[in-house]
Protein: Calcium-transporting ATPase
Organism: Cardamine amara subsp. amara
Amino acid sequence: MSSLLKDFEVDAKNPSLEARQRWRSSVSIVKNRARRFRMISNLDKLAENEKKRCQIQEKIRVAFYVQKAALQFIDAGARREYKLTDEVKQAGFYVEADELASMVRNHDTKSLTSRGGAEGIAEKVSVSLTEGVRSSELHIREKIYGENRYPEKPARSFLTFVWEALQDVTLIILMICAVVSIGVGVATEGFPKGMYDGTGILLSIILVVMVTAISDYKQSLQFRDLDREKKKIIIQVTRDGSRQEVSIHDLVVGDVVHLSIGDQVPADGIFISGYNLEIDESSLSGESEPSHVNKEKPFLLSGTKVQNGSAKMLVTTVGMRTEWGKLMETLSEGGEDETPLQVKLNGVATIIGKIGLGFAVLTFVVLCIRFVVDKAKAGSITKWSSEDALTLLDYFAIAVTIIVVAVPEGLPLAVTLSLAFAMKQLMSDRALVRHLAACETMGSSTCICTDKTGTLTTNHMVVNKVWICENINARQEENFQLNLSQQVQNILIQAIFQNTGSEVVKDKEGKTQILGSPTERAILEFGLLLGGDVDTQRREHKILKIEPFNSDKKKMSVLTSHSGGKIRAFCKGASEIVLKMCDKVVNSNGESVPLSEEKIANISEVIEGFASEALRTLCLVYTDLDKAPSGDLPDGGYTLVAVVGIKDPVRPGVREAVQICQAAGITVRMVTGDNISTAKAIAKECGILTAGGVAIEGSEFRNLPPHEMRAIAPKIQVMARSLPLDKHTLVDNLRKIGEVVAVTGDGTNDAPALHEADIGLAMGIAGTEVAKENADVIIMDDNFATIVNVAKWGRAVYINIQKFVQFQLTVNVVALIINFVSACITGSAPLTAVQLLWVNMIMDTLGALALATEPPNEGLMKRQPIARTASFITRAMWRNIIGQSIYQLIVLGILNFAGKQILNLNGPDSTAVLNTIIFNSFVFCQVFNEINSREIEKINVFKGMFNSWVFVAVMTATVGFQVIIVEFLGAFASTVPLSWQHWLLCILIGSISMILAVGLKCIPVESNRHHDGYKLLPSGPSNSA
């Protein structure tokens, strides 16, 4: 099978255009192209969108580099005048939306200056830069300046899916056959008897179409919910005088937005204030070099990313008036990238479809030849009647229906159904899958490289211990007793409140709220406990420059000037790094005294002691300067003020989740920026660091030669003091040795590792927009246990599709062979077109619903990961398919050729009764085989069955409707009511397949272990359940 599917292979992540085109061109037998490829990306549409995107980028590039220069030479009088409309005046605004859009888009600094800069624009849009927009004005601002939304592809109605289901070529042919059959039947047999066969086919088609459309429509609603969730971005604004979080879609012109590293600029706007703001504009202009935004270059464009620094901006343009809005419009169509499993099953469907087409043609030819031979024997070869035409039409309908059954259109669509179901369930379990393939790939993951903070720990940080003036002080309940002199306390409070990326604000109820990262919040809370006041500190000191914290430097610095004119720089960061920058220390009198080697050794011991207690350690330092430096802040000459130890407790359930991963053959590796002692302490607490595992620092790892890197990479369980580049290097080396790697990340610098990994997992709470954009899955609660849940669902998707394929291929084989053999031997097919359509619905749409949506069980995480190179249709599956097919063919063959004698059927309706028994037995074989298919290798197929309400509902509906078809719809389905003895016989024939399944599963088919980790059955059923 593998050699036949060589054209149906694509990479799970970033598949090549050549591979995507190759498999599409290889799909030759398709009943309904519109439905088969509905969820697959349209390459022509994608190419067209890419062309549009490039055109928009070129236009923006021109605006950046040509118009800015040209505007310098255009006289203000020659500029376009925007007349203020009455609607804008009456709303209390003094500038038109198009005027604002034009000014920002064209980077027209001259127009901005003439209108008074950001402050002047704020007046024209009637907003205070300190108080922000009033909530009562939101509606009128949206009415005048527009909403911050982009056009979405309109939702498809249910009738659209009905129409799409009707595009099936085989169903169209059958409809034509049915109409002709009704016409000929009425003419020859009269009304209403002549209508039954044709009407039965039409009713069956309507049923198939409705069930298909309902299933597809529900899928579309699930994907729509997921798309809506993907577009949710929360930003911080100042409104009604307080800082608050709002959805990006609720942003209005006049809003004051707070930007920090990793944020996406949510709308076009003007810089108000900020520090070291660098903007990545590559998503708009294609330029890779970051743009520096400040008072002289104040324009910010929607869709760009904050690469460094922080700022406040005034929103001037929203929605479709921005260039990003126009760009988003081109990206709203194109479809989802195909997954490897979808592609592989398209290949399987194509191969089986070709076989089925051959059988259908052979069946039709054999039936026609036998019919002609029989006419020749009867001497009526020259006499043809309308009844003969009706017989040939029935043969044709049977042949077409065999194609309906034989082409397993449901195989690739079952993957979509299963993934949609899994993604919906994961969303309720706090994991948002951004790319379909990620859910599938996660089932094969062999290792997870996880961050510590917020993923393994709670991210609720508090300062637990502090070293200052030679003393260690521990937190006592909600307070600290430091007993410091006033001078030392003042310096400590300055070091805390001056050098911070967070803010202390009042919420609507007047309660104090700290906004910022968990580490920053912990330190600010510590400062408030010491009696510090933010407003007082900000009044007494003016911030001149900020160097924000980033993962490479592992420190944050700020330059301030005191009201007396004194220049002071503060720094805080990773203890080992910042301590090396110090040559002095604050004594108990608040004086700066030399830092001896002995004291450095003592402080290092304190840091090590804090770290061994799983505390994150930071040093707070300062230095006084004669004048403000023109470049970077100094890297030496600082005075050490304090070492703080921050406690971040391990999340409940993490140790158990790690153990589940280890039992499932998934290695958990912790990659953190923390001190190696802190990292090891946390890793041991979580159960990550085990005997024989390696804990290494990032600097040591990155300096190893490539061959040593690859040798040590599989043994690494903890990487401490790592840079984002170290994480990327580790991922790269693990992938080279064949690992399927999942990586977590939250910062902007984690984007390369998230992109490089097989599955990128971004944190939903702590993660930046840049990290989320490069991720495949967003863990919305930042919890490691949720990552394990994603792996479990990934495995469930794969196994569920295997179950469905096993079930469907069995039906395919039996339906094809029984009709073909019967046609060759008896000259008629035991299963009519209507009956085959019902069987097709059982095995296709209903089968997929039942088997492809089963929830995961605990046993899934007790087997090894499924290798990427493993054959999808395993030996165990072939064993079950062949065994069940042989049984069904033998039983149905005996009934077909000797049923009348065995069952003692006599009378004029004996043939009808026998055909009904064959049909009924065939359906019950599939019902019981569907239950068998719940477990490919385990014998206890009933375990957890009633936990899947979808499975139970499908089984109940199938049996219920089968009873209705046989007992009440005989005229349309060519059946007759059966006695209770015959019903019992049909059920017995079907149920024997379950006993057969037990015997089949005792036949070993793998050499040592099955691909999914189960040990071979040693002796029989007694040890298997």
